[in-house]
Amino acid sequence: MQQNRLTRLLASRPFLFFSVLILLKSMLTWFVIFDDGPSWAILITELPFAWLIFGLIEMFARKRKLIYYVIADAALTGILFSVFMYHKYYGVIATWQALQQVNQVTAVSNSVFSLMDPYYTLIFLDIIVIVYLLIRRRKELLTNDNRQQSEFSRRKAVFAGVVVLSFSLCLFNVLPNRASMNEHTKAEEMGILNYEAYALLDSSSEEDLLDADEVTQERIDELKGTESPANPAFFGAAKDKNVIIVQLESFQNFLIGLKLDGKEVTPNLNKLARESLYFNRFYQMVGQGNTSDAEFVVNSSFYIPESGAAAMSYAYKEVPSLPKLLKQYGGYESATFHTNVVDFWNRRELYKAVGFDKFYDQSYFGKNNSVYFGSDDEVLYAKTLDKLKEMDASGNPFYAQILSMTAHHPFSLVPDSPGYEPFELPERYKDTFVGDYISAQHYADYAFGQFVDGLKQSGLWDDSLLAVYGDHQGLPIFSLDRKDKELMAEIYGKEYGYSEMTNVPLLLSMPGLEPRTIESMGGQVDILPTVANLVGASMDGQIHFGQDLLNESSNIIPQRYYLPSGSFLSGQSLYIPGVGYEDGTRYELKKDLPANGTTKDDYDRALELLRLSDSFMTGLPEHGGAQPPAADEK
């Protein structure tokens, strides 16, 4: 009986039937994305886009109209589903540019599925049911479809009016909200479907870029308020020493010093922090490319592109970089180490762009003790140490970047190592996302401790500058459920928010370097000039957007992607705009310190810095020459 009623409604009132479906699916999407959930406004913001498509179907589909409705329903459902699933991890409203990384999805399928609540799959239920009915009741539906052909001319005129009205409403939603800086605000005001169409058709997002030769270091320093001292502190403190940079996967700053029920989560990194220059107000600057973006920013001292991953947008450029600077300055041999395959995130081209002499990927590390993308961190560090010894024996200093990987989202796989004792989580942390994260990072710390021990035993420790930093957040606030948020509030003693999410550590360690905690604000773009100062390499003549953190007390850090456009850090605040600067929000960077230090001038300077970086990178020539050889291409 119910099936018969549904069939009759589907056949006689498809416009109404599918409109209700899209309304319900839009409500689900708004519940996932926007803090306040849906309101009655979605009748005006979301439905007109669907009505525009459904009206065109009614106007032009004389036969098999229901099939076109199902296709349209499936397409709109796919858009809405992609938007809220993308938001669950990245916290941004995905647009067509995000499709550039669609080939990466299968490699991170564990992460994707971990974000999916079971009820999300209900968004596809109607499509399954309708397809079933079309197969089982094809004759009945086609008969009804044919019967309506006599009314086609009259209905065509009615729905022409619907199309015109719907298109007008879409324009009414889009046009007044185009100037909004914050993509969340823009999507909420326009409606998600309208915003997706706007993003597809809009060409104004292409900035008015400058010629590359108009971008000067003097202009960059002026915007940042940077003044280079005549005799910079620590200049040449690491002269002729090896440079080893370790990028820790998904490692956030709150882990340093964290104890749960009296037990340290990361004892090895805690010890290193006590013995190093520890920057506790250091922030990620990554985007769609996550780990590969961090590699780019650290090695280039440029910002990520406005859309897409740096490894896709900039990997074919001749990029000024740390490997090139160190080779020019002191003949440094350079290599990068990662247990994944090199072509993931287009790293083969990225390494060529920034000038690494060699890369070591899965072809070198193998697939033993494989976790997620490749061998676990113990294999990574052990086999990397072997290569570092070889490089050190050559007589020239070396630069090595090492990318850990085991503590990767969704943090559900911790290697069963003979010497490793898993972290005993308190009962309240068990079977939670936060608990899994802590367990994974405890293992990452254990493997890292073995690496430090190996450096010391081999003698490399005494002749190297070691930099360690987190590549990006591991606990996006958009992915946490109520229990996880409560646990994070317990850890921080305050609500876990954007400032805490983007805060990663930076440690600089070297024999003779007096340990202390440095409160100066910094970002990943600042690592290159800081390392250059320590080894005594002049940055004159090399465009860079970072600053030496050992000789600067103020900074301005533009953000992209994980935070809305126009977001930046300065003073004691993270600033996130609304429609523009005036209706934005400031977030404190440190508990009990007022959120201040972000002005309209800071906002304008942050945007201009991004424009200069985009202009310079866009204007660079494409690279040439041979690919950096892999381990098996000697």
Can you describe what's shown?
The protein is α/β, with parallel strands linked by helices. It folds into two domains: 2-201, no CATH class; 212-434 and 464-619, Alkaline Phosphatase, subunit A, CATH 3.40.720.10. The strands form four sheets. Strands 1, 4, 5, 6, 9, 10, 11, 12 and 13 form a nine-stranded mixed sheet that branches. A four-stranded antiparallel sheet has the order 14-15-16-17, covered by helices on one side. The longest helix has 26 residues, at 65-90. It is globular, with a radius of gyration of 27 Å.
**CATH class (first level) name of the largest domain:** Alpha Beta
Report helical residue fraction. 40-55%
Work out the helix count: 24
**Secondary structure category:** alpha/beta
Number of domains: 2
N-C termini distance? 72 Å
Task: Report the average pLDDT across residues.
Answer: 87
Range of strand content: 5-15%
What is the rounded Rg?
A: 27 Å
Going by CATH, the homologous superfamily of the largest domain would be Alkaline Phosphatase, subunit A
Largest sheet: 9 strands, mixed
Could you name the CATH topology of the largest domain? Alkaline Phosphatase, subunit A
Query: What is the general shape?
Result: globular
Q: Low-confidence stretches at least 5 residues in length (pLDDT < 50)?
A: none
Instruction: Give the tally of β-strands.
Output: 17
CATH architecture of the largest domain: 3-Layer(aba) Sandwich
